[in-house]
Amino acid sequence: MTSEDEFVEEPPARRRTAVRTTGERIRLVLAHICVYLAALIFVAPLVYAFFSALKPNEEMFSMPPTLVGSQIKWGNFAEVFAYGPFLTYIGNSLFVAVAGTLVVLIVSTTAGYAFGRLRWKGRDAVFVLFLATLMVPAEVLVIPMFQVMQWFGWVNTYQALIFPFAFTAFGTFLMRQFFRGIPFELEEAARVDGSGPVRTFLQIILPLSKSAVAVLAVFTFLSFWNSYLWPLIVTVDYATLGTLPVGLASFSGLTGTRWDLQMAAAIISMIPTTILVIVLQKHLVKGIAMAGLGGR
């Protein structure tokens, strides 16, 4: 190699690639910074609420505001259960949310399979009418649903807390769109092997839809867990059948000005939903990415 070869200028294409790589790295760093800032904005209120639950009550509204109080009162979380049937509220919410989620999953997956994979006369027209119910606000249905619960004799029962919202169109639409993204060849091959619609649904379609089912399960669980208006109306004996949102609303009256205990109760109420989202995080990301991509 001659000395002239050692000083050969780098080809322009290679230089452009290096510049493009540097730009991509800068964009990646900026994207990470934006994500971290957004995460900080969303997490900051939760962090402040947690430390507020550990403050003495007289320092809750101190000016200027402080993140940490003069004392760290972990006993606030234990003292919550001494004010009213808070443990009963948690148990009722867990039962209603879990039972309601199971009912919604059964109804939505079977209805979604009927609308998305089976062929029957008037299927699309019925589906459009079914989707039209999404445009009706839930508040409009409160009085008719309460009357129906009275006719059934279900007022102040667990059935009234679970079944009225177990047959919504959202879950059916979500599962239908996901089912339509599954190759039809799998179903045809199962039919050739002698599998009927029920067996095909249970052994082929449903196992391939775990991510979509996880998404629907989380959304439904959160909906039941956070429901306030309907349990407030249909429940009479709050001490026995009250759910957590209703309990938190009455908690202010029970504790007077004990805002520290109210904040501790709110933190405790977030624990089950947080655990659920963490456990199903992988399925949630996959399900949200894949749901709704089918179009056949």
Automatic annotation (TrEMBL):
Keywords: Cell membrane, Membrane, Transmembrane, Transmembrane helix, Transport. Pfam families: BPD_transp_1 (PF00528). Residues 90-280 form the ABC transmembrane type-1 domain. The chain crosses the membrane at residues 28-51, 94-115, 127-146, 158-179, 261-280. It comes from the Bacteria. Its main location: membrane. It is found in: Cell membrane. CDD domains: TM_PBP2. Belongs to the binding-protein-dependent transport system permease family. This is Carbohydrate ABC transporter permease. It comes from Microbacterium ureisolvens.
